[in-house]
Amino acid sequence: MSHPLPEPARERLAARARRIALIRRRVIVATLATFALAWGVIAFDGSMGTTTTGSTLGGTTSSSSDGTTSSFDTGSAYSGDSPAPVTTAQS
User: Fold this and answer.
1) Please, which residues have CB within 8 angstroms of residue 71's CB and are 6 or more apart in sequence?
2) Strand (E) positions, 1-91?
3) Do residues 55 and 20 share a domain?
């Protein structure tokens, strides 16, 4: 048989429950605010894709602004020289 909790214990448990509920609400609000901010940045600024320069072994790959990619083989193995730069773009 269970005994009822004394008044101070009930008050402490109730205060703890209020603190936990407040923390949960704050986490939910912060998560939603972060999500909304991220969507706002994406909507305002668009895609985060950038144009970069890189290289491939034995060939060159290039991407156009419309997202298509083409490549060709130089016919030689990588010799340690600086290969032709590669430009990529994300649409």
Assistant:
1) 56, 59, 60, 61, 62
2) 52-54, 59-63, 69-73, 86-88
3) no
Q: Are residues 54 and 17 in the same domain?
A: no
pLDDT score for 29: 98
| Host domain of residue 14 | 1-46
Is 1 in the same domain as 35?
yes
Q: What is the dihedral of CA 51, 54, 55, 59, to 10 degrees?
A: 0
Q: In sequence order, what are the beta bridge partners of 70?
A: 62
pTM value? 0.45
Reported as a single tens digit per residue, the pLDDT across 9-23 is 999 999 999 999 999
Strand partners, 72: 60
For residues 34 and 54, membership in a common domain is answered with: no
Sign, Cα dihedral of 48, 52, 55, 59: positive
